[in-house]
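Open question from group meeting: does this chain pack into something compact, or does most of it stay loose? Before anyone orders reagents, we agreed to write out a predicted structure and look at it together. Recording both the input and the output here so the notebook holds the full record.
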Amino acid sequence: MAKTHEFNMFVTHKQHKAPLNPFGDGLTHWRAAELALQRPWFLVSISQPDSIDDDSFRVSRTILVSNIADVEGLAQMEVTSQLQLDSVFIVTPGHFNGTSQWKMEPLRAVWRAEEPSEVGQLADIYETAEGVTYADSMLATPVKRLRKKVLHRTFPLQQ
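Structure tokens returned:
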């Protein structure tokens, strides 16, 4: 099976580094990050218990993720840890979503499909909560021309 493509999306600049870290957690905090590419990326909401013994209080976190493989990695962590994937949003640039601006939509599913002209070359199809589909194809193949579409993963939708 061919590997799906990965991209590094987020660029940080020293002048955007937060001067203070109010949490003292050893992490680097940033006031801004730049998008390196005009490609889709993902906003993922997760939650986990505040302590190992008590699941009644959950801590929520929001993560910016540059590729679907890393989103799927977070989803896989649900199986082996107490992390819960609450929602996934896809953020698409205008040329990808058919408008002139960036758009954020709840992501319902990812499908895998074969390129019609390149044996073994896979493309991802992102399906939003509204049923809109976007092809993430290295060959710029539209969704309708991709072959052998297989549901790869579904994601929870916030109510």
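Observations to bring back to the group:
Residues 18 and 25 are 14 Å apart (CA to CA).
DSSP finds two helices and nine strands in the chain.
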